[in-house]
Amino acid sequence: MNKDTSRDTRNTAPGDDAADDVARLMSLAGPRADIEKDRQSRVHDRVRQEWLRSTRKKKTIRWAVPLAVAATVVTAIGIGLRSPAPVLPQQVGTISYIASSTIPGQTPYSVGDAIHAGDLIKTGSESGLSVALQGDISLRIDAGTSIHFDAANDFSLDYGQVYADSGDRIYQGRHITIHTDGGSATDIGTQFSVAYSDEQLNVAVREGRVDVANSQGTFTAEAGDTLTMAGGDVVAGKVSPYDASWGWASALSPGFVLENETLMDFLRWAARETGKELVFSSDELRMAAMGTRLFGSVEGFTPIEAIESVLSTTRFQYRVDPQSITILN
User: Fold this and answer.
1) Less Cβ crowding at N or C end of the chain, within 10 Å?
2) Chain segment 79-89, per-residue pLDDT in tens
3) Which residue, 273, 299, 300, is CA-closest to 99?
């Protein structure tokens, strides 16, 4: 028995589209044998469910692709708008010591502050400081000084006074250059000072050698020499390594870390900071100093104060003269 499977479109509810599509598919199969009504119903429902499932899957895939593309576009826009990483200036040193000031707020710096290429340091009228540069070079900046850190080994002194200590091994390939409007000074493994004020340049060499250049030419100053340049004139002079004029630089010494260092190392440091000769009254005392380990701290002490503090805790006696530090039994 054949059944009429044609569809009457009158009064068809919007929700019956799926059922109508299933009926149309079944009509295309043509005449068929009678099927039990309950089986026919089950098959009809199963076909309808599979069709709905496949329709939902297609819709899901259809939406998934645009969403993935949109995410890619957003990511690309984010990358395009991302700012390049800032290029930081080169760090050339660290503040290692600041002299105490009697005027509150005189020093806007702190120990441990990093100094970068391009930085300008201005010290107050009573507040000098020390900067530890790369290569163990110590640069001490007197009170009332303005200096630009142009690069790791290049500095421009506007006015005031600086002292450089590049180590006790001269001619070791490390050097710094200090520029002023009146000329420049380049050291070769040494201790020296540069002062500039009222268009006058003063260079003093405590140890080693310094080459000084200005519009008149290049001049060499060695240990104990001074050069004064002003108005085209060059005047040479002499200064001892223990002269009182070095006192401000010694007062800005970053100090010596005692912990587990030998007494000999400490005494050599103190002698170099004061420009005095280190003398032992016997070889036995010299050997004993090399084998004596130190502990504690001399932070904030001048080199002479540090000697007094350290040796008072040992069996060593000492005498400090204008030219020497003598270790006694």
Assistant:
1) N
2) 455 666 677 78
3) 300
Closest CA to 140 of 220, 228, 255: 255
Q: Per residue in 150-162, is it b (16+ CB within 10 Å) or e — as a string? A: eebbbbbbeebbb
Domain at 255-328: CATH architecture: 3-Layer(bab) Sandwich (3.55)
Residues contacting residue 101 through CB under 8 Å, at least 6 positions apart: 107, 124, 126, 127
Looking at residue 215, its pLDDT comes to 87
Helix and strand totals (H; E) in the chain: 6, 18
Mean pLDDT within 70-75: 44
Query: Considering the domain 91-247 in this protein, what is its CATH number?
Result: 2.60.120.1440
CB burial readout 119-149, b (16+ within 10 A) else e? bebebbeebbbbbbbeeebbbbbbbbbebbb
In this predicted model, which residue has the larger pLDDT, 30 or 218? 218
208: left (phi over 0), alpha (psi -120 to 50) or beta: left
pLDDT band at 138 (very low <50, low <70, confident <90, very high): very high
